[in-house]
Hints:
Elements: E1 15-18, H1 22-33, E2 41-44, E3 56-58, E4 68-73, H2 80-88, E5 91-99, H3 106-112, E6 117-122, E7 132-137, H4 143-153, E8 157-161, H5 168-176, H6 178-195, H7 200-220, H8 225-232, H9 238-247, H10 251-271
Parallel strand pairs: 1-2, 1-4, 2-3, 4-5, 5-6, 7-8
Antiparallel strand pairs: 6-7
Amino acid sequence: MNNIKVAMSAFPSKICFYGCGNMGSAMLRGWVAAGVSPDTFHVVDPVAENLPAGVAVSRASQEVARPFDVLVLGIKPQLLSSLAPDIASLLAPGAWVISILAGTTTQTLSEAFPSARIIRLMPNLAAAIGKSPLGVFAPNETELVKTDIAAWLTPLGAVIWIDDEAHMDAVTALAGSGPAFIYRVIDALTKGGEASGLPHAVAAQLAIKMTEGAAILAATSPETPKALAARVTSPGGTTAAGLAVLDADNALDRLMTQTLRAARDRGTELAKGDAK
Length: 276
């Protein structure tokens, strides 16, 4: 649950979301839950639905009467070149464009919006509850401005500054796509519990609550996840027997490396304009 409240004096008076799918909607919900008034936001999206009550929605840019100082860009990366003129019409001089587009570099964004200040951001769906990692790359901003940016974003989760843009595809793979991989692990644990004789409902509840507790402990403990795993493991016990399967030929490490590499490489392909 999001318990962080926004200092409204430091928050933009108006933010436009151009394109507001699952990720944009999660950001909106996180900010509204943190106390930002819904009328701070204006969504431009032909199909967006189930947005927080009070958020203004326009189905086309022609319906919007004013330019914006801050615009969150949430379209499909492949649509940027065709939609850039329409998006630019909504920008005030020197506006910030906060891009959550996978694989789309600051150079590409700057070419599309030459008068804008570009920030790359990679959140995930947990922004809705203030628990998203937030990979942020803002190479042209001062430390003072970065402090303001962090203040805007903190209600959505933990701000992690990225110094090298070449790392952003890996950030997207781990922080942005990562929840889907964890959800699949939870689903696999549930299936494993069923195969071991548990009713589905019991296995699902155990898998979710176990994952929740383990994640909270990993986030709050001074010990590393590896050390915590060792604490759970007694020589010759049940945990050791299970870990022997995961550790055989580094099976889990290899699987996660291959998974993240595939997601990272797809980000690189998107940056090159591969729309397949």
